[in-house]
Amino acid sequence: MTSPTEIPQRPATAAPPAVLLEQVRRTYPNGGGTVAALDGVSLALAPGSSTAVMGPSGSGKSTLLNCAAGLDVPTSGRVVIGGTDLTGMHPDAVTRLRRERIGFVFQAYNLVGHLTVAENIALPLLLGGREPDAHLRRYLMAAVGLEGMEDRLPGELSGGQAQRVAIARALITRPAVVFADEPTGALDSRTGAQVLDVLRDAAATLRQTLVLVTHDAHVAATADRVLFLADGRLAGHLDAPTAEQVTARMTGLGR
Ligand SMILES: Nc1ncnc2c1ncn2[C@@H]1O[C@H](COP(=O)(O)OP(=O)(O)OP(=O)(O)O)[C@@H](O)[C@H]1O
């Protein structure tokens, strides 16, 4: 098993925010008018920090993640990833930036059914014309507890194992920022907790910035900061909170 300390680290520099949002607004057509899924959200996330995003259903959490990760385009406002402004960028350039600097873990795993575990993990690199780093791949397989399962197909995996593959796939490009949208939402609570430990430990080892949407106060309480959304707007934050504090704040938001 490869020691995490053998993985080359990103240099610690006085870097710009890993993620910067300025007055981000995203509207969708709704009947004759529009609905604002995000209504002027501004935030800055420090490199290497972990942030949980919480809020009632429909408050804009997924829209926030999708806009911040370049998967969706704000109607107005700016998204800046590690100093690179996505505003007005050609979609191909956004795709490249996403492949190189952003990892995304979805609730539904989104693995490619006819590719093996090893092929799924290597996919983001192969799509970008890069070869997987064998050393990092071995480290990630061990870190997510999938050693020996390289040749399995997604259909032969449990939900927890599939999400571990998705995590390894999100980290194989050594992204600066990892976004996870309810990554444990489809798992039982014990498996979910294990998968989350894997994600947190690997992100910390690789010094990645982690942004996580969750409905679980215990999960949120493991982050450095919890951001609360209501009706598409930021409705406060808590730093290093307990699960009880998070639950109390969510209750205050009407959940
Ligand atoms: N593609 C879309 N077209 C129209 N409306 C949308 C679209 N995507 C999201 N919305 C609306 O925007 C609002 C925010 O949705 P979003 O999925 O971001 O919320 P959420 O907080 O992630 O919700 P949940 O916790 O239920 O997943 C909701 O009112 C939703 O109906």
From TrEMBL:
The keyword Nucleotide-binding applies. It holds the Pfam family ABC_tran. Residues 19-254 form the ABC transporter domain. GO terms for molecular function: ATP binding; ATP hydrolysis activity; transmembrane transporter activity. Keywords: ATP-binding, Nucleotide-binding, Transport. One of its GO terms (cellular component) is plasma membrane. SUPFAM superfamilies: P-loop containing nucleoside triphosphate hydrolases. It comes from the Bacteria. This is ABC transporter ATP-binding protein.
